[in-house]
Structure formats: C-alpha cells, structure tokens
Design a protein that fits this description.
This protein is of the alpha/beta class. The protein is 43% helix and 14% strand. The chain has a 5-stranded parallel beta sheet. Strands 2-1-3-4 form a 4-stranded parallel beta sheet, sandwiched between helices. Bound molecules: aspartic acid (2 copies).
Length: 350
Amino acid sequence: MVIQRIFMVLFGAISYSTDQMVEHINNLPREVRKNRDLSVFDVVSIDDLSNDDIHLIFDVAKKFKELGNEKFSLLKGMTVFCVFFEGSTRTRASFELAGKKLGADTINITSNGTSISKGETLHDTAQTLNAMRANIIVVRTEYSGIPQFLAKHVGAAVINAGDGMHEHPSQGLLDAFTMIEHYGDIAGKTVLVVGDISHSRVFGSLVRILPRLRASMRVAAPKTFVRNGFREAFPHVQVFQNVEEALLGTDIVIALRVQEERGGGKGLPTLREFSKTFGINERRFALANVGAIFMHPGPVMRDIEVHNALMTKGTTKILNQVENGLAVRTALEWLVADRTDKKVKLYDSI
Ligand code: ASP
Ligand code: ASP
C-alpha cells in the first residue's frame, strides 16, 4: 500500500512536470504572438493580408525558427489536409512537417490535375473535407482560382500552396522573410526578378508583397515573358530586356525557373539560348551591389537560369529559403487555425 502511494506520488510528479514542460514550450511562441490574430481566415493571396498580418507572421516565424526542432501541441486535436493536385516536394513536405510540429494530424491527398477539371470533383472534395471537419486545407492546383473557390465553401482555413499562374503566397512570405533576415529591413533595397515572370505564381506573390515592404522591384526577362498590359498592371516595376543592365545597383537577385509545364518554353527559342542571355553566372552576379544575395524558389534547373558554380556560394540563400519556409508555414498554420479572438469563419455550403 505504502509502496503504491509512493509510486503514485512519483508518477504524478513526473506527469505534472511533463505537462508543465509542454506548456512552457507552447508559451514561447505565444509570448511573441501576444494574442494577435490575422485579419483573415484564409490565405489565398498576399492581397488578403494586411501589413500587420505580414508582420505578425514574420514575428511568429522568427520564434519558430529560433526554437528549431522543438515540438508543440498548439494544434493538438486539429487536422491539416494537404490537397495537392500538382506535383511538389518541398512545399508539400514543409506544410506537412509544419502541421506535425504543431501537434496536428496531417493527411495528404494527391491526385493529378485532370480529375479536378471535371467540375464536380471539386464540389465533392469541398464537401468531403467539410464532412471530415478539416481545420486547415493546404491546396495546390494547376488552375488559378481553385483555392479561392474552396475558401468560399469550406469551414476550414484555406492556404493557397500555389494555384496555376496566379499566386504562391507562402513562397512570397518566406522569400521576404529571408531578405529581411539578411538585411534587417528591405525598405529601399532593390530586388531583381529574372526569368519567366509571366507563368510564375511565385512572381505573382512577390510583386504584391515587396512593395508592401517598400522594396523597389525590377524584372529582367525576354520580351515574350512580359505580357501585354504588364507595365500598366505593375507600374512600380522597372522592366529590362538586358539582364546585365538590370543587375547594376541590385541588392537581391531572384531567378525563376522557366515554367515549361505552363507553356513557358514556348516563349523561347531554346532553354540554352535563355541560359546564354538571362542565366545568372558568377560574372553577371558580380555586377550587383557588393553584399548582394541570390535566391531561387526551387526547383533549380542548374546551368539554365543559374550557373552551377553560383549554387554553393555563401551569397546564395536557396537553402535558407527552404529552412525559412518551414518556419513561415508553421506560423501560418498556427495563426489560421488557432484564433485567440475565437471568431469563426462563415462559408457558403454548396
Ligand atoms: N514546384 C514545387 C514547389 O512548390 C517544386 C518542389 O516542390 O520542389 O516547391
Ligand atoms: N516551386 C515554385 C512553384 O511551385 C517555383 C517553381 O516550381 O518553379 O511555383
């Protein structure tokens, strides 16, 4: 009997201290968050986010990054569905890992893009995910606008993980986070985006987030990649057809892959030609400002948009982008699914 009592006291003490430890870990990001909430339930476009939202995401992401491999129970009991109708490795993996870090259950649904074009499938998907009471739906599709549709018709928070040629907001956020991490502040810095700007959803998010952080923007691309109306749509972006001229005075260089799966290759004689005229090699990169950094959202086609030798330089931040992607997506998932104001999303059931 006495032995049993001693065992219970000891066991109680151990479980108590474990609970306390879990709470302590959970409180570290909470202290940075200070009960702030996003002004939106879904993140489909950078345009959805206020400047305060962007800074909240960055503050929390920074804390998650500092805490490294810690695990949390902030989303315990919640479910994250990663619905990928188009291939991805790093984006899907980081959203899934983010969910797991937060203690959520994560489910992956992958399918090729063709079934979704039949229309009905998307309604079914939305209804099914609703019936399963998903808390977060991370969606990637080859069609622009599908995350918007889902966001309207499900109770879960929807995060757009790339829709066709439209946007990839978590990529825009992690790119901006990486720039700020390097420079402290990017107001007044010049960012040059080189390559397939017309088919790139990463560009779609960059062109929206960078002016919000008061960075100035340039693009260098073949004429065939600058769509009619581009200059009117983005009057704040300087357009160059000569990459060397564009590089002069630049602080951040971002190269984009030619999106052949979206017809990007049709605007070029050959990829080799593109590499010769727009590929970033060490000689070209040296034209940028002293201390400039090089970025790429991945996957990289080595020796096409970027010369192999540049990949391993200290000024190349591609792996930092990947690491920051996890921190930013962890912040996003936590913020969309765990509201301290207890507001509930309203949606139109189908
Ligand atoms: N396009 C994919 C992405 O979003 C490529 C990859 O996943 O590696 O990252
Ligand atoms: N991973 C990025 C995307 O999914 C960039 C790329 O695929 O080139 O858009």
